[in-house]
Amino acid sequence: NIKRLMDMGCYRGMRHRRGLPVRGQRTSTNARTRKGPKRPIRK
Asked: How would CATH label the architecture of 2-34?
């Protein structure tokens, strides 16, 4: 269960807490569902 992972402070728990994918996907390009909608890049 997720709360237990978060309480243990293991890698997967940290990912859940940060709202990042847990199962080892790459995050530099594709993690949109977990991160939420894109924030526009201001120039």
From this structure: Irregular (4.10)
